[in-house]
Amino acid sequence: MLGKLKRLARSITPHQANPEDNWASTLLTREEFSVYIQMDPRDREHGTRVARTLQADHPAADPELLAAAVLHDCGKSVRPYSVLERVLVGLVPYRFSEHIPAEGVKVRFAHPELGAEMLLQAGARTAVIELVRLHHHPESNPRAALLYQYDHLE
């Protein structure tokens, strides 16, 4: 929970974000980067932080997993959030978000599928698409489970 509060404090305005866009571009294909660069800077920063931490702990992590870590929240970019809405949506636990009718919360709940569809349309790698799709429901996919774990550390 402390990690979520720290992330929330860092994400009040996009001007506070410091995404590692140059580093991200080394992990992503041109098609994937076209999706990444459309993301809110705060979500880009979160994605690069998740990927950096995952890579530090697992130096042999495969390139598709690191790319998916960078892109895992790209589905949130289908709808911009106001500052207040970003804070309120961020306080709703993901597991409850499917039951709340607010539009921002609906996007948050659907963002794995929305992101996977964006990546599919852009021509991203199949493994990256699948990892983004599964990052909140990893089931028996060990790479998606690792992404889920590192997303929740952040």
Automatic annotation (TrEMBL):
InterPro entries for the chain: HD_domain (IPR006674)
Protein name: Phosphohydrolase
All residue ranges annotated as the HD domain in the record: 50-152
Superkingdom, taxonomy of origin: Bacteria
Pfam families: HD (PF01966)
